[in-house]
Amino acid sequence: MPSSRRTDLGAFTHSACESTRQAKYRRRLKSVPALLVVFSLTWGVLPLLITVAISFDLIRRRGLPHTRLTLFGAWWLAMELLGVITAFFLWIAFAPGGRLLNKRSQRSHSQLQSLWARSLAFGARYTIGLRWSVIGSECLVPDGPLVVLARHGSQGDALLTAALLSREGRRLRFVLKKQLLADPCLDIVGHRIPNYFVNRDSFDNRDELTNIGKLAKDIGDDEALVIFPEGTRFSPTKLVNAISALDATAPLRAKSARKLNRVLPIRTAGTLSALSVTAADIVFCNHVGIQDISSFSQLRDSVPLKTTLRFKLWRCSRPEVPPISKEEDFVDWLDQQWVKVDEWVSENDNSELS
Questions:
Q1: pLDDT at position 185, please?
Q2: Alpha helices of the chain — where are they, by DSSP H?
Q3: Which strand (E) or helix (H) includes residue 198?
């Protein structure tokens, strides 16, 4: 049976700087009206947009990329607006009597988060050709809380990971960058269930680490906390810089990091903050098939998606790994696991490094 434990969101901080009442109102007074305007304009002229896109694609003969992206963009806006509207009705249902943060409300909002992610993945399948396969999904099934350490290879990792894990019945908590609060659905729903939006540019990260630790406490048996421990998306330049930084601060880790070719070394501070307050098992979530896209031309040229997104998961029981109290041994074990992540990516990813 799922655990009845839950985080006390009344005392929980979703962001060190962006979750005050004033900050939320200021942000949402811009993002929600902007969503309404863009949705109305896009869907109001959608037949014209599709006609223009098809005409352009037929001339260029490129597999209808502009048409596919237009349809996916319209679908995204529709799911985004539907999520915000559903969140509003959930507010009407639970806000009276101060029940917005109770167990039933959290489960309802977790279901909304799951449906939102899965609906976007569904739309991507039938518009831009997203396909995926999973090795090791059975490791998500046994009861018990999980901390998922996921590779960060592209802009859509959080969405794809949410769609994958929620499909297996897991309620999710995320550590995400605060810039994602610009998404109104993610902002609103993400503040009603346990998530943390981290400031990656903070000079003093003590508050960030404390709040990540709070997020990891009391994870339910049907929940998983998802962390992207690299902290940012991979690039060869970032890998060189990360190894140089480790040479100066952690020479023993630099030796392991030099074995990496396609992933960045783990930034251990946030991961250790989470794992130090929970005995949850650790799941490594690896994937290949979608490379990082930094421009519209790269996005257009990649559609329809030509390769199947492949996930590989494996679970490590906590009694089988070094205890956090022996931090040096645990970090060494973590680095060894991350070398395995890199080896699998190198063997299975055919995309070119950029």
A1: 95
A2: 21-44, 46-60, 65-94, 103-127, 157-167, 184-190, 206-216, 236-249, 251-257, 268-275, 296-302, 327-348
A3: strand 196-198
Helix 65-94 to helix 103-127 angle (10° resolution) is: 170
The SS3 assignment for 202 reads coil
Three-state SS for 314?
strand
User: What's the rounded mean pLDDT across residues 219-229?
Assistant: 92
The structural domains of the chain, with segments of one domain joined by +, span 21-348
- pTM for the predicted model, two decimal places: 0.90
pLDDT (0 to 100) of residue 2: 41
Pairwise CA distance, residues 313 & 134, whole Å: 8
State the helix-helix crossing angle for 21-44 and 46-60, rounded to 10 degrees. Answer: 70
Question: Measured between alpha carbons, how far is 48 from 50 in angstroms, rounded to an integer?
Answer: 5
User: What's the per-residue H, E or C state across 232-258?
Assistant: CCCCHHHHHHHHHHHHHHCHHHHHHHC
Q: Is residue 115 a contact partner of residue 89, using CB atoms and an 8 Å limit?
A: no
At residue 155, the pLDDT reads 72
Q: Which residues of 309-341 are buried (b: 16+ CB within 10 A; e: fewer)?
A: bbbbbbbbebeebeebeeeeebbebbbeebbeb
User: In this structure, how many other beta carbons lie within 10 angstroms of the beta carbon of residue 307?
Assistant: 15
Structure tokens given for 9: 């969101």
- Max Cα distance, the chain (Å): 63
Give the pLDDT confidence of 134-144 residue by residue, as tens digits: 999 899 887 89
Number of CB atoms found within 10 A of residue 203's CB: 5
**Mean pLDDT, all residues of the chain:** 89
